[in-house]
Amino acid sequence: LSLTVVNRTMTAVRRRAYVSVLRAPLRTIIASGPTDAVARIINDSAQLANGLNVLLSKTLIQTSKGIAGFAAAFYFNWKVSLVALLVTPVLYTIIRKLGKRIRRAAGSALESQGELLAQSTESLQALRVVKANDAEVYESGRFHVINKRVMRELNRVRTARAIASPLTETLTLVLLCGMVLV
Fold first, then answer.
1. Which residues of the chain have pLDDT under 50?
2. Residue 157 CB coordination number (10 Å)
């Protein structure tokens, strides 16, 4: 099912990309060459297909597991299952807040990495100027500051991801134990 959706979607994406290239100004295609446009249409859509396939496959599998688990829970004890439905919004809120925190941290990390790339590219492209002005120490210091910021942001992402799973599992166990006791 997921591969059918992926294949149909990628067919539509490739068609739209091809039409966009055909309608692009001639100077754009001549500047980068037709090989680049063809490679982008073929290779980029293949990469997109891989990502979409992983995403859809996991979504379908987890949804199927959830429905089966939900049905089994109601079969064994409908009262506890009903109470679990009342607790679900609490878990959803906590998981959502953790997800937002992880996304924000990941965005900050990518932004810092962009600054690192920009700074290093700038100094290395103008290496003659840096050496002529004896600014190696200055540029090295700039790089070091940005590099430390990247590490700090990556560590924030790591910490948020490391905390998310055990926290949600512990909270789920506590809430389920509380429900069973009630």
1. none
2. 19
